[in-house]
Amino acid sequence: MSVGEIQQRLGMLRSEHRDLDVAILALLGTNTADQLQIARLKKRKLKLRDEMSLLEDQLVPDIIA
User: How many domains does the structure of the chain reveal?
Assistant: First the structure.
């Protein structure tokens, strides 16, 4: 994957991550919050965060210490 492709993918993942934040907060704001749905959204957020971390690591060159 090229640097541009990685940055584009990171942008999409960050956007989805923010959207999930909004969705989770909206669900928590309702009186009938579906705990299973919230748990699934949080799990998806964690997966996105892991993928973002892997992509960010690809953008940072290895530095020999």
Answer: 1
